[in-house]
Amino acid sequence: MKITILYFSKTGNTEKAATYIKDGLLTAGDFDIRLMNLNQLESVDTAFVNDSETVIMGTPTYVANMCWQFKKWFDDDWSCQLGGKLGAAFATANAMHGGGDIALQSMISHMLVRGMVTYSSGAGCGRPYIHLGPIGIGVNNGVEERKGFFELFGKRVGEQTIRLFKKL
Ligand SMILES: Cc1cc2nc3c(=O)[nH]c(=O)nc-3n(C[C@H](O)[C@H](O)[C@H](O)COP(=O)(O)O)c2cc1C
């Protein structure tokens, strides 16, 4: 099964979170995983995204919302066929009350508009609770501190991918 981790990262925090999520996914199954940074538009492999069962999307928080680059991609680029795929979101931010949850909510709304089936693992999976998705908070070390949190999120999304898409 294929999983895309599509993110925007300019200064590296969201990219680092994406690599931790990848590590977590690999503890759940032998997935073919690709990381794609919207900062390098040519790196979006549409064919791979379209073949993916799951697309995980990550954004830095900009002005208490998803970054404009991701919003632009959602608005302008409909070449990826996301309908029916599993979607999950993650974010990074500088401040605890900097709007990371709003960024996640915004990403999830856009996924729903594309017809994706969304998943965060939810607080129902027990501690540590992951409500809308994981957020790395804090200058320089926020993502490192939450390494295990991102890995766990990856593991849970991987398990859900298997539950939904594994052929009987
Ligand atoms: C234009 C801009 C707006 C930002 N707005 C916020 C904000 O509202 N809240 C917050 O906590 N951090 C904000 N930040 C900080 C980024 O979310 C944070 O540094 C993020 O981890 C950067 O991700 P990256 O290293 O993957 O590019 C902003 C950064 C930029 C460049």
TrEMBL record:
Domain Flavodoxin-like: residue ranges: 3-158
Organism domain of life: Bacteria
| Protein name (record) | NAD(P)H-dependent oxidoreductase
Native organism is: Acetobacterium wieringae
